[in-house]
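Posting here for the record, re: nicotinamide-adenine-dinucleotide.
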Amino acid sequence: MKTIGHFINGEICTNNDRTQAVYNPTTGQAEKEVLLASKELVEQAITYAQAAYPAWRNTPAIKRARVMFRYKELLEKNAEKICQLIGEEHGKIAHDAMGELQRGIENVEYACGAPELLKGEHSKNVGPNIDSWSEFQPLGVVAGITPFNFPAMVPLWMFPMAIVCGNCFILKPSERDPSAALFIADLLKQAGLPDGVMNVVNGDKVAVDTLLSDARIKAVSFVGSTPIAEYIYTQANANGKRVQALGGAKNHAIVMPDADVDNAVNQLLGAAFGSSGERCMALSVVVAVGDAVANLLVEKLATGMSDLKVGAFSDSSNDFGPVITKQHQEKVEGYIESAEKQGATVVVDGRNPKVKGYEDGFYVGGTLLDNVTADMSSYKEEIFGPVLQVIRVKTMQEAMDLIDAHEYGNGTCIFTRDGEAARYFSDHIQVGMVGINVPLPVPVAYHSFGGWKRSLFGDLHAYGPDSVRFYTKRKTITQRWPSAGVREGIEFSMPTMN
Ligand code: NAD
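Prediction output follows.
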């Protein structure tokens, strides 16, 4: 059985830690095992990162950026290998993995602009012979803790920008699919990154808690479920660290009576079932305004779903693959069962699909639930599976109130032909990322990503311009060079320009 180790100080290390099985969700078999780092091992990684920091911090930004230019090429060159690793451990279909990787690479492209992004701000003559400027200095050693559902992209949201800003990085990927992160960390070495600047420790709560408590870690970026995001935020904050913790989601799409329903159906099918619904931006609830559009939607969604293909990641004709674990498969099916018991109509039932040749894989087929209500647990909680729920309302305001009342506020979308309605929606809805006829409004790499309410704990969003601020601290310098022979008098009042 292959053992997945750590990447510390430029070396893959496979010492004797605890281990956990890594499953291939496509087959349902435990094909690998991952080491779970001890506290001591994490501390050692931090020590290496700390040692690498002074030289890396003082490396000119343009040279740090050149590493990222080379890194982008290496990621592209190794794309198939990375997607294979993602497929083996996550189960997402190759074309979906390629999309994930491309989105990750776009963050590397953004990081290549570091010299421009870090230029700072300058004001000449803020007073007589006085100039002032702000510069953005790195924090030191920073950490990232990432979820299973984007094993390459979410780490790439974090470390390229952290590193290019002059920090050293410790990544703790998901223990359920750790190989892609380990592989892409190793590529950084090939791109010329000095040893110790980037480190990967695999592990569980032991590794995470060490990162949260060690005073040498200056900032923590987290992406995962809301209960853990809240825990990370509270702990890291209490320990004096800067922290951004992105959590779970329940993303609603409003379909207005005037929408192009055929277009909306196509968009909804991809956004609900792509990646088996295991995306924090997956559209999992359709709020249909009026029974006429609801009836049409349900009918057309059900027809569209009859063509959906669930199966092995290696077969590109499949639309989506398995969910991540057996337990998760049971959890998703449990939500379908509870919705049915609580009065929802199961229009398309994806429980127990037959996937020929992969009978032990963790599959759930596309499921459509109609007549869902806000008190059902399938609506209140994040399912994170290929289940699309339809809620029927009478007005757009009712739809918006429903969305605003939900604990999560990650993404949302409206399908309409009415510009005024769309503008009102985007202006008022209490959600961080909004689509107008765009079902997955995941911001591009040069904007920033983040939800509202219990979908994000912290102030700054992930990647893009916010990440430059997150991974640096501002220092403002005020400088006077008096003209030769000029002596300043003593001034006891607050200096002003009056
Ligand atoms: P998770 O919260 O179970 O795990 C995320 C990370 O936290 C992993 O590295 C894991 O090892 C660690 N962790 C888990 N339990 C812990 C504990 N008790 N103490 C300390 N660390 C712990 O999330 P997941 O199941 O891997 O990922 C799916 C979740 O992530 C979903 O809720 C999804 O919505 C969310 N997600 C959010 C975003 C976003 O941008 N908001 C993006 C992707 C995924």
